[in-house]
Recover the amino acids of this structure.
């Protein structure tokens, strides 16, 4: 075994990249070579995906632990501040925001229960932030979370889905209009389409109509991924059909404020 290989690496490659430009191995020198190949454009998209999978597998325990700690922080401090003074609540608002607390309370009022026993942090193999399942709860893709703010937005997005499932009896499997409506609401109300996130993280630099365009774009992508959707044109048509009523519907909030 050479210095550039590790016990967890795949078949020996003598420290040479495969046809994608990716070099298997967990040691620091191999990681540096892979990152250099990415930065200089020498690694293909397939190789970059191999690099990401290897990194996510290597960091799985640490990613899940961090995700669980941040999840519990949001849930714990949301609950505490629900009964503490307004001064403490204002301090909390500056750091994390009341979204998780408010959505949790709204879901409880509808007979639901979302907490750390059914909000799971896991390593995901597909590139998404999370998901909601009426039977099991919320999945958070720990390897995709950039920071606590990203986690809060992702939790809020999936909690809007949970609220809609309880309040509106969403047909998740067959009704694309239902799916489009809850995706519009989740992207609009969660904070993931706020101007700063679009501007700094996604390179969307428009100064007007940015929020609406972000919500529409993300809703179309989500609907397109559903098995009963034919193609992007079909997804766009369904989103347009429900846009006006669903974008205006801010329940359980009074307005869009994130």
């Amino acid at each position: 075994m050479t210095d550039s290989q590790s016990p967890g690496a795949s078949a020996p490659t003598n420290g040479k990249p495969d046809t994608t430009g990716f070099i298997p191995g967990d040691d620091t020198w191999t990681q540096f070579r892979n990152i250099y190949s990415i930065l200089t454009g020498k690694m293909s998209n397939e190789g970059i995906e191999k690099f990401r999978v290897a990194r996510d597998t290597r960091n799985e325990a640490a990613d899940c632990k961090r995700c669980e700690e941040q999840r519990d922080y949001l849930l714990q401090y949301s609950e505490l501040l629900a009964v503490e003074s307004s001064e403490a609540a204002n301090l909390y608002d500056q750091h994390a925001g009341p979204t998780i607390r408010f959505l949790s309370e709204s879901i409880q009022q509808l007979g639901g229960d979302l907490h750390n026993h059914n909000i799971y942090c896991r390593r995901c193999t597909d590139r998404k932030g999370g998901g909601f399942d009426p039977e099991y709860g919320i999945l958070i893709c720990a390897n995709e979370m950039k920071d606590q703010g990203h986690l809060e937005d992702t939790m809020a997005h999936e909690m809007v889905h949970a609220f809609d499932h309880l309040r509106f009896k969403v047909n998740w499997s067959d009704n694309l209009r239902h799916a489009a409506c809850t995706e519009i609401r989740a992207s609009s109300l969660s904070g993931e389409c706020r101007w700063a996130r679009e501007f700094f993280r996604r390179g969307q630099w428009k100064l007007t109509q940015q929020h609406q365009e972000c919500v529409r774009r993300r809703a179309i992508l989500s609907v397109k991924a559903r098995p009963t959707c034919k193609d992007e044109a079909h997804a766009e048509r369904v989103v347009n059909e429900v846009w006006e009523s669903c974008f205006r519907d801010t329940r359980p909030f009074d307005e869009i404020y994130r």
Notes: The mean pLDDT is 83. The longest strand covers residues 137-141. Residues 75 and 145 are 17 Å apart (CA to CA). The beta strands are 119-122, 130-133, 137-141.
